[in-house]
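Thread: Newbie trying to understand structure tokens

Hi all, I'm a second-year student working on a class project, and my supervisor (Dr. K.) asked me to get a predicted structure for one chain before our next meeting. I've only ever worked with sequences, so writing a 3D structure as a token string is new to me. If someone could post the tokens and maybe explain what I'm looking at, I'd be very grateful. Here's the chain:
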Amino acid sequence: MSTPIPPVVRSYVDSFSSSSLDAWINTFAADGAYSDPSTPTPIDPHGLKENFTGFFTAFPDVKFELVGLHAISESSFLWRWVMHATNSGPYRGFPASGKTINLPGCEIIETRGDKVFRVQGYFDRLTMMAQMGLVAGPPPK
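---
Reply by user tm_fold:
Sure, no problem. This is what the structure looks like when written as tokens:
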């Protein structure tokens, strides 16, 4: 028998995918934390708004294509996604490039009770920077 995806995980995915920042932050426990390759240390719920307001400003048309949402255990879930966006605002000190981003990634979402406790995101920062025209990308195939 497989573990069902709890409502808080679906809410986490749906609210982030629709850029509903406040609803997304509300899925976190008060002592929850988020980290990914662009965050040097885990961010608590109080720091999420500032961090991700910049992200949504840099990529105002961002959409997250759902590739999969899977239970790993009773309290851990894997969200696989592809980000589709245009870099039309400054991002982490770099000016807007106007370039289109298509970036796969995933997040491991850990819950505690009816809240998100810990999220660890994974994506290739080098690919993202190459797609934004900030570094040389891999040679064409």
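A couple of things are worth pointing out once you decode it. Strands lie at 28-35, 63-71, 76-86, 100-112, 115-123. The mean pLDDT is 93. Feel free to ask follow-ups in this thread.
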